[in-house]
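TA notes, week 10

Several of you asked for a full example with nothing omitted. So below is the full record: structure tokens for the whole chain, then the designed sequence directly under it. When grading your own attempts, check the secondary structure regions first.
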């Protein structure tokens, strides 16, 4: 996949696989990457590191709990960058404790599906962008 000049949004982006994806996309020429995560310290550090290496405003960290404020985070990305080319639903947890399974399903499944549906509603905006390019 050619990532050059594309805008990416990644959930769970501050550490681990998400941070690795963010670094790789910026290195390969992504226009912008929105890094969403609940870990503020790691997210801000990643944003600072990559913006210092690759140019100001390349990476935007947004504190986001995908079970609570994903819609407002997506709206902020649209406001900052104007569009989103690719969404990578990386946020997830793995915990076999009986009292955690509902949160696990909410993070790993429900919000990803809801987010895709939310973006589909905004598709007319995306279509107008494609025509302008």
């Amino acid at each position: 996949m050619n990532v050059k000049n594309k805008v990416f949004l990644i959930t769970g982006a501050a550490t681990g696989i998400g941070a690795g994806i963010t670094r790789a996309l910026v290195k390969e020429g992504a226009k912008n990457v929105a890094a969403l995560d609940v870990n503020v310290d790691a997210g801000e550090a990643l944003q600072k590191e990559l913006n210092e290496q690759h140019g100001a405003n390349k990476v935007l960290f947004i504190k986001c709990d995908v079970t609570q404020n994903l819609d407002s985070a997506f709206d902020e990305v649209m406001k900052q960058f104007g569009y989103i080319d690719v969404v990578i639903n990386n946020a997830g947890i793995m915990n076999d404790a009986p009292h955690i399974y509902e949160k696990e399903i909410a993070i790993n499944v429900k919000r990803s599906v809801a987010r895709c549906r939310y973006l589909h509603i905004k598709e007319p905006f995306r279509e107008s962008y494609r025509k302008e390019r």
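The radius of gyration is 15 Å. Use that as a sanity check on your answer.
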